[in-house]
Amino acid sequence: MATLQVSQISGISRQYHQDFFKAMKSEIGIDLENIVYYRGETHYFVMTALRTSLIEKGVILADKEDRKELMAPSNVDRSKLHSFAIEAAQYATGHFSAKLPVTEFALDARGNPDCAVFDFTNLYSAKNACQVRVTSTTCFTCGEKEAIVLYYVELGEFLLSKIFEQNLCSC
Length: 171
What we know:
By secondary structure, the chain is an alpha+beta fold. It has 2 domains: 2-96, no CATH class; 121-171, no CATH class. It has 4 helices and 5 strands. A hairpin with a 6-residue loop joins strand 4 (130-138) and strand 5. The radius of gyration is 21 Å and the shape is elongated.
């Protein structure tokens, strides 16, 4: 299978692979800070694109100061986002091993291509990885007060950012 010839990219960043990122910018006009590729049931890419690159490639339709307006669905060209992600993925895999032959996205739960653009400008972090809260309530049956113990745990990426409440980038 052709995809097995494509090596994973465990994570490369501009500061350590300057020549690669400069070549990507000059050859295909995509400017990234980093890129990661893992292969499992699907191909999983994460890349941090520069704002100017997204605008120049037409992914972001209008440069806006307000981040919510900048990243609003109405300001993102989904087809150009898909092209951007595929072009970057094929360039990176082709540079380090064999060019990724897949040009279609897996579908998300809504049946849409599973590709998204997010804003990592602000990083939020948890003050505690876990908390125990004790409160009391009155029993409906006997009227006595009862203690309730609630264990609250944040794991993985949730320690750094509540990813489902923020705009993030995963292509």
